[in-house]
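Protein data sheet
==================
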Amino acid sequence: FALHKVLYFVRTTDPDHPRAKDNVKEYEILLEDDGVQHVDMRRDIPPINNERDENDIDEGVRLTYEALCRQEISVETKAQSRLYCYYKMDHPYLRLAPFKVEIVRQNALIVLFYDIVADEEARVIQMLAVPKACLVFLDRIMKFFAHSQ
């Protein structure tokens, strides 16, 4: 779960942050309310591996579907009349901050999500990522030179 990543982030950045421990407790309570077992809260989830089974779907169908997702194929006027947008609020967090969903195509269902991360939040994430990215880059350079000698 994301709680594992939150705990890792807190431990590696600022373990003495005044609100961090309270926030972790709040997340744990919310997860328990959703029926998540306490032992599962700190479990590290492996990365998703979306391998395609080449025998499962015709390549032409797959290429068409991917083109639809990229909006490279136009939608008929009759089909456009059935497209709509709505606010997604089916989770307690989303009731406080819903995000927009646009139905781009009905068959196959293709949707676009908007306002998931605010522009200011994106800038903060980028600013926080730059020092870490520089450290990772420098670490890799140092390892490269250490192995080459």
Summary: The chain has a mean pLDDT of 74. The two ends are 41 Å apart (CA to CA).
